[in-house]
Write a structure and sequence with these properties.
Elements: E1 7-8, E2 19-20, H1 27-35, H2 40-46, H3 52-67
Antiparallel strand pairs: 1-2
Length: 75
C-alpha cells in the first residue's frame, strides 16, 4: 500500500512535482495557501476538486519531507 495515496508524482504532469490525486494541484501550492492563512473552506471554495482528506495528507507529506532535510532558518 502506498504511504501517501493522495499524493501523486508523474513526470509527464506538472514537471513531476508532487500533486494531489493527479489533479495538477501541487502539494506546495496548497501548503503555501495554508501558510498564507487561507482556511480549508476558503481553498475548497476556489478549488472544489479538493477534499478534506487532501489537506491532512499534504501536512503529513510535508512534515515527513522536513524530517529528512536540513532547512536553514536564517540567511
Amino acid at each position: 500500500m502506498k504511504r501517501y495515496p493522495r499524493i501523486t508524482i508523474d513526470p509527464q504532469k506538472m514537471g513531476g512535482v508532487p500533486c494531489i490525486r493527479d489533479l495538477r494541484m501541487p502539494v506546495a501550492t496548497v501548503l503555501a495557501m495554508m501558510a498564507d492563512g487561507f482556511t480549508q473552506d476558503e481553498i475548497i471554495k476556489e478549488h472544489s476538486e479538493l477534499e478534506t482528506e487532501d489537506f491532512i495528507e499534504v501536512l503529513k507529506y510535508a512534515s515527513e519531507i522536513l524530517r529528512f532535510r536540513e532547512i536553514p532558518v536564517s540567511a
